[in-house]
Design brief:
The protein is α+β, with helices and mostly antiparallel strands. It has a single domain, classed as Electron Transport, Fmn-binding Protein, Chain A (Pnp Oxidase, Chain A, Roll). Helix content is about 15%, strand content about 35%. Strands 1, 2, 3, 4, 5, 6, 7, 8 and 9 form a nine-stranded antiparallel β-sheet that branches. It is elongated and about 55 Å long.
Length: about 190
């Protein structure tokens, strides 16, 4: 069967399309893949994609070190990143390992590259998910916040992936493929959707 998309019957083009979606999502806040779900252990969280490196096969996310998800992150822990865009009918399911960085070269570079509004989120008193009695306690009043102190709470999650599952839904026939990296080579396979 044929489709109007060039990747429909091509593993190589399916992978290229998936990588293109991730590359675009870094700076495109309207992309579904800009805010995918990161699932560590039994704790799925929506995160913001800050960097995609195709050659080194990693995604970068930022996190508040006071967050409960930090307890779920152990170095080399298997995790998944998932996103589905209903408009283009594409699902990405990415398997890899997470590594948390704090107060190192990666975090400093990411912090310095962050917008002030993003930095404000790490500068508030109290941890994400903490119970408060009045929602106004969280309001961001710039004059009352030392933005640079937020670096103490700022962390970087590096998600190094070794597998991407690509699913494309189409009324004439779905396509599902898996890309696994072993010994620096990619193994490409079709799967039953």
């Amino acid at each position: 069967m044929n489709s109007d998309v060039d990747f429909y019957n091509s593993l190589e083009l399916s992978l290229k399309y998936a990588e293109g979606l991730l590359a675009d999502a870094v700076n495109n806040s309207k992309s579904i893949f800009h805010s995918p779900t990161l699932c560590i252990s039994d704790s799925p969280r929506t995160v913001v994609l800050r960097e995609f490196n195709k050659e080194k096969r990693f995604l970068r996310f930022h996190t508040d070190l006071r967050s409960k998800k930090i307890n779920s992150i152990n170095e080399n822990l298997v995790a998944y990143v998932h996103g589905y865009d209903p408009e283009i009918k594409v699902q990405l399911r990415i398997k890899g390992k997470v590594k948390l960085h704090k107060k190192d070269e990666k975090t400093l570079k990411a912090w310095e590259g962050s917008r002030e509004m993003s930095k404000l989120c790490y500068s508030v008193k109290g941890a994400p998910g903490q119970i408060i009695t009045d929602p106004n306690e969280y309001d961001l009043i710039k004059s009352e916040i030392d933005v640079e102190r937020g670096y103490e709470n700022f962390g970087v999650i590096i998600f190094e992936y070794d597998e991407i599952e690509f699913l494309f839904l189409k009324n004439i026939g779905h396509r599902r493929s898996k890309f696994s990296w072993k010994d620096h080579k990619v193994v490409m396979e079709w799967l039953i959707p």
